[in-house]
Amino acid sequence: MSDHDFIIVDSDEQEKEVSEGKTIDFREVDVEHAEDISSDETGADDTEEPAEVSVVEEKTEDGDSEEDEYEKVCVLCHRPESVAGKMVELPNNMTVCQDCMQRSFDAMNNMPIDFSKMMNIPGVQFLNISDLENSFPKSQKIKKKKKKEEKPVKKLTLKDIPAPHKMKARLDEYVVGQEYAKKAMSVAVYNHYKRVLTNTVDDIEIEKSNMLMIGPTGSGKTYLVKTLAKLLDVPLAITDATSLTEAGYIGDDIESVVSKLLAAADNDVERAEQGIIFIDEIDKIAKKRNSSQRDVSGESVQQGMLKLLEGSEVEVPVGANSKNAMVPLTTVNTKNILFICGGAFPDLEGIIKERLTNKASMGFNAELKDQYDNDKDLLGKVTVEDLRNFGMIPEFIGRLPIIFSLKGLDKDMLVQILKEPKNAILKQYQKLLALDEVNLIFDEGALEAIAEKAMAKDTGARALRAIIEEFMLDIMYEIPKDENIGEVTITRAYIEGTGGPIISLRGQSVPLLS
Q1: Are strands 402-405 and 211-214 parallel, antiparallel or unpaired?
Q2: Which site from 80, 90, 402, 494 is most exposed, i.e. has the minimal number of CB atoms within 10 Å?
Q3: What's 452-505 look like in SS3?
Q4: Is 92 left (phi over 0), alpha (psi -120 to 50) or beta?
């Protein structure tokens, strides 16, 4: 029998043989020995077949499980399945997301050429999907994220909002000082959520109580907002105003601040519409005084944020910082979102001082020019006119009705920050050494020395951790070497570099002088 000969197979008999497991691959088996093989298969032991099948099934299951560990990626927009949604599978293991597939169909339908007529032309091959396999570069596989246990989201009610005095008492546990700022925030947040949760529809409409915090760096602006959101259990988005630009320019769109809140709420629009947005470094978008170019990151950003602060429905990109063709959009109403803006306003003190010293320069009511040079609470005397002179437009300031300032930290406040709050820095290190069964003690002289060093750095409470990390490095390195160490006392001499810490061994007591 030659290689060009062929065999006619009855389809009914072939289906019967497939059901009985007697199929033969004629491409690999010699035709002359086909009858012998079929007879051998008939006489073989039937118990061996399920074993072979089970092995094959196990292999396929393992292969499927390995494939299930990785996400499918769209060959056109390169977005994974977790972002783009369910994929459309094409031959040759290619996947396309529904958005790209729909855009492709829309583009073909809107073209002036009728592709259905071209497909009927003999000898013309319109599209061969197998040719696309080599045209796309092989993308890296993305492993699927492990599913987190979904926590039941409790709907916020008016009973869940603590009264202002209770809210301030909770803030006192974490934040030292800043009494006026904590009181102002507690009242503003309480009134805001009363407005949101009651939904009273009558002649009296309560306006939003957005806030503007002014304070030097390291005074606790961001920490206050984080503590407040944790207390209320509402979504919080913290963003930086320095990356915001006018729409159409390089940078984050203004709507991206709302998209971050949506991500913090697990893409739950209803929950995000009751959240808090904290925009830090708001002083960086002040309009430039001497600029001949278009101010795309200053006054234009302030004007673009007006609709967000006042409350309007905006289209927000989901999972991205700017709108583009490949990102889905959703509509979020910012009417019930609380906006808190904060900034250091570094040159504002000079503007306030200039206004205060221009009252009178002669006579009995004259004020000395250096009267306010050492005033620690100069930012507390800020007015709307000062903010306008700084570069904030009146429409923007008008949508932030609650303006308050935070005081700069002095030596006594820094010592309190070290030891009094619930998660104070000293308590964190004491807990770390307690895991090694070592007691860590700071004497008062050491705390004062740390506060003095932090005051010299002029970066507020942020300097405390940097100083403690520096002198605790050797202690954290040496203590695990010796298991007999039971107690370490940090002294002022060790902080200043003129001595060392006092180390006590386990079971060793210091004798008392009679």
Answers
A1: parallel
A2: 90
A3: HHHHHHCCCCHHHHHHHHHHHHHHHHHHHHCCCEEEEEECHHHHHCCCCCEEEE
A4: left
The DSSP line for 85-118 is -SEEEETTTEEEEHHHHHHHHHHHHHSSS-HHHH
216: nearest Cα among 460, 39, 398, 450: 460
For residue 221, what pLDDT is reported?
Answer: 87
| 142 membership: H or E segment, kind and range | strand 142-143
397 burial via Cβ count (<10 Å: 0-12, 13-18, 19+)? middle
Cα 323 to Cα 225, 248, 254, 312, 327: the distances in Å are 28, 10, 10, 18, 7
How many C-alpha atoms does 3 have within 13 Å on its Cβ side?
Answer: 1
Q: How far apart are CA 414 and CA 17, in angstroms?
A: 87
Q: Which residues contact 284 (CB under 8 A, 6 or more apart)?
A: 241, 242, 297, 343
Cα separation, 280 vs 286, whole angstroms: 13
Closest CA to 273 of 159, 161, 156: 156
Global pTM reads 0.66
Residue 81 and residue 93: Cα distance in Å, rounded?
A: 14
> How many CB atoms are closer than 10 A to CB 6?
8
Residues 77, 100: contact at Cβ < 8 Å?
yes
Regions of the chain with pLDDT less than 50 = 6, 9, 18, 22-35, 37-39, 41-61, 63, 512-514
Place of tokens 């050491």: 446
pLDDT of residue 6: 46
Closest Cα to residue 379, out of 402, 346, 410? 346
How many residues does the structure list for the chain? 514
Count Cβ neighbours within 10 Å for each residue of 48-76 and write b for 16 or more, e otherwise: eeeeeeeeeeeeeeeeeeeeeeebbbbbb
- Strand residue runs (E) in 372-478: 402-405, 439-442
* Residues in a beta bridge with 501: none
- pLDDT for 82 equals 78
CA dihedral over 477, 480, 485, 486, signed as positive or negative: positive
DSSP 185-231: HHHHHHHHHHHHHH---SS--PPP--EEEE--TTSSHHHHHHHHHHH
Strands, sheet with 236-240, edge to edge from the N-terminal-most edge strand: 236-240, 276-280, 338-343, 211-214, 402-405
For 479, other C-beta atoms within 10 Å of its C-beta total 16
| Cα angle: 270, vertex 275, 277; to 5 degrees | 135
Counting Cα atoms < 13 Å in the Cβ hemisphere of 31 gives 10
Give residue for tokens 């979020």. 332
